[in-house]
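Sequence, please.
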């Protein structure tokens, strides 16, 4: 004997491999969802910009604070208290600035 020990595969190793495969599968699906969410946010920002431009053309305020409040409530009702933070981030992203592109860089 050379003093080396060799590990043999055990049930725990099989569980670990299946757990790793499951994690990889779940993360892949999360990545797909992240792409879809980013695409939806981009579309939402474009639509929001069109609404803002139309409101300004009618000499109305660029923002509708009542609507923004309803958006915050909708996110909170679906996602709980942290939904308000997400709604605020979405509104800020989509609110943009009329003189600036939404994409920087």
């Amino acid at each position: 004997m050379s003093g080396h020990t060799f590990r043999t595969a055990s049930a725990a190793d099989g569980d670990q491999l299946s757990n790793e495969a499951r994690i990889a599968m779940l993360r892949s699906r999360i990545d797909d969802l992240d792409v879809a969410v980013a695409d939806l946010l981009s579309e939402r920002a474009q639509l929001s910009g069109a609404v803002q431009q139309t409101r300004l053309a009618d000499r109305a305020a660029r923002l509708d604070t009542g609507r923004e409040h309803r958006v915050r409530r909708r996110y909170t009702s679906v996602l709980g208290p942290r939904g308000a933070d997400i709604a605020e981030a979405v509104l800020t992203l989509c609110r943009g600035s009329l003189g600036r592109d939404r994409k920087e860089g």
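The longest helix spans residues 11-57.
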